[in-house]
Structure formats: C-alpha cells, structure tokens
Design goal:
Elements lengths: L4 H10 L12 E2 L2 H8 L8 E5 L5 H8 L3 E6 L2 H10 L5 E5 L15 E5 L5 H11 L3 E7 H5 L12 H9 E9 L4 E2 L6 E8 L8 H11 L7 H4 L6 H7 L13 H13 L1
Parallel strand pairs: 2-3, 2-5, 3-4, 5-6
Antiparallel strand pairs: 1-8, 6-9, 7-9
Helix pairs in contact: 2-3, 5-7, 7-8, 7-11
Length: 266
C-alpha cells in the first residue's frame, strides 16, 4: 500500500525528496480516505484523468477500481519515481503542467480526479469545468470545497459556484484532517464528488464562467453597473423581475443562465 506514513516517509528519505511547497505537495497517508474517493463512483473500464499523482497513493486506488488512468505530474522528480516504481498496463504517466497539457486524447465521458494543490485549486477547477468531465472526484481544501455548495449572496459564492451548480450535482464525502497528510497542512481538507447533471445547459461553461466573472467584477457594485453597455440590459432585468440595483452575487445559477441567454438573444 502506497498511502501509508511509513511508505511515504521511506520514499522521501530514500529518494532524497523534500515536498515542494510551491507545488502544494502534501501526500495523503490515509488509505481509507483515498479508497473512499476512488469508490465514490463505479470506475471499472472508465478513463480517469488524475491531476498530480504525487507518490501514487490515489493512482493505486484508481487502478484497483479498474480505471484506465492518465496521470499528469509536474514535478520531474516524482514523475521519474513513478515511472520506475508504479508500472501498470492501464496507467499512462504524463510529465507536464496540468494547466498547459493538451487533453485531446481523452474521451468525452472521462472522469477527473486528484488531490489538488491548494495554491492553484481555483485554476484547476476552472479548467476542469471548461473540459466538462462526466464526473469529478476531488480532494481540496475545505474552504474550496464549500464554494461548490455556496448560495447567492454568501461570501464564497462566485463564478465557480454559479457555473458548477448548473452543470454538476455536488456531494460531500468526508472531511480530512491535517494529520492524514505528510507533511500535514495547516487546514482541513474535504472530499467531494461532482456528477454531470442530465439537464446541464448546452452553452459553453467557459462562456458562462466569463459572464459570471463580469457580473461579479465589482461585488459591491450593482449588476447593471458591472454589465454597463450590455445591449438591452435594463429591459431584460425588468422582464426577469429584477430591479436595477440588484447585485450579481444575488443571482441564482438559473437566473445567471437566463440572463446570459436573454442578453445574447438581443
């Protein structure tokens, strides 16, 4: 088993590896946690894109679940280690930056998974939303996890919350304490599972993310001021029963979608 404190500490010592803080390297050493994440969905025969395999703890669980895994690792030291130490016919290791990799080889129904580095979680989640995987199995900082469930006007309600809720059903699996990692982070993490909604919009998530960001560009300003210059905005707001001084953060995901469609029809 790879996700144990003994295994991780022995590998780090033997390979003379120091976890890279800039890459957010905190290795999960709780086998049960990783098993719960990999077992949240039936993965046998499915293609999984794993972001940041690290020392292969989650990778092992995904393979044991029967998945075909493509794992993208930015750290050359860890990539070299995995190439030597984790050989499997259903595993393809890719050395590169997950935010700059061409994923044209993935099937439309792929699943995204990963213990995401805290420092770039938002960037990775935004990228994944634009890629529209069939599902996502993510280990993220608890604060980041709550954004998927945020409601209008809450502090953590933003473009990710608005758009992800249009395309995915999110479920909390469990919280993960700092002691489940080597080295332990200073925050609690959480496991979340997102599955594609059957009634997801046909519009591009990338376009809706951009539109949501524009609606919330200045949170203290009104939606009308943030979208100033949008043709027909005043009329559309009136038709939707929204006053001119409504703020973007007050829009439900469904209202955001309606507003986007109405303005693009004008």
């Amino acid at each position: 088993m790879r996700a144990t404190k003994t295994f991780v500490e022995q590998v780090l010592a033997r390979e003379e590896l120091l976890p890279n803080k800039n890459l957010g390297q905190n290795f999960c050493v709780d086998e049960a946690v990783l098993h719960r994440l990999a077992a949240a969905l039936p993965l046998a025969g499915r293609t999984v894109l794993e972001i940041g395999p690290g020392l292969g703890g989650l990778t092992e669980q995904l393979l044991d679940a029967g998945a075909r895994v493509y794992a993208v690792e930015k750290d050359g030291r860890l990539f070299d280690f995995l190439q030597r130490d984790l050989l499997h016919e259903r595993l393809t290791l890719i050395h590169g930056d997950c935010l700059k990799t061409d994923y044209g080889f993935l099937p439309a129904d792929f699943v995204a998974a990963g213990n995401l580095p805290y420092c770039i979680t938002a960037d990775i989640v935004t990228m994944l939303l634009t890629m529209q995987p069939a599902a996502m199995l993510l280990m993220v900082q608890k604060e980041a996890a709550e954004r998927f469930f945020a409601r209008p006007s809450q502090k953590n309600y933003g473009p990710v919350a608005m758009v992800s809720q249009l395309y995915y059903e999110a479920a909390r699996l469990c919280e993960v304490p700092p002691g489940a990692y080597v080295p332990p982070p200073t925050v609690t993490s959480a496991l979340i599972c997102l599955t594609a909604r059957p009634d997801a919009p046909q519009e591009s998530p990338k376009s809706l993310l951009k539109f949501a960001a524009a609606c919330l560009r200045m949170r203290r300003k009104t939606l009308y001021n943030n979208l100033t210059g949008a043709p027909g905005l005043r009329v559309v707001l009136n038709e939707m029963g929204l006053c001119e001084n409504v703020r973007g953060e007050a829009l439900t995901p469904e209202q955001l979608l309606t507003l986007y469609r109405r303005l693009n029809d004008k």
